[in-house]
Amino acid sequence: MREDGKLDYIEMPAADVPGVKAFYTQAFGWKFVDYGLEYAAFDEGLDGGFAVEAMTPKPLPILYATDLEAMQKRVQAAGGQITHAIFDFPGGRRFHFRDPAGNDLAVWSEN
To answer: Is 2 part of a structural domain of the chain?
Structure first.
């Protein structure tokens, strides 16, 4: 069950999605669901995916929110810097922010 503010997904950059899939399959036995040639999702303890055109050059922890607009306001009020305003993507909507320590994260919602 998804909960507000909890880690829900991790997105990682991969210039060579087939190559990274082969590595994780061989090393750890991971299985993937492909979304075209440039995105492969996994469910291996924490859902996530590898993306050719990731929005950050580092792994991106993604939190969940039932009310995305309210969560964005909470992040800003707590001192987070919005780096990408709310946008649609296949499967939902999300925004990205930077915390006071300089870490990039995102928050997503299904609606």
So the answer is: no
* Number of domains present in the structure of the chain: 1
Q: What is the mean pLDDT of residues 27-52?
A: 95
Mean pLDDT of all residues in 14-33: 96
28 lies in some domain: yes
Judge if pTM exceeds 0.85: yes
Is position 78 within any domain? Answer: yes
As a whole number of angstroms, the distance between CA 5 and CA 48 comes to 16
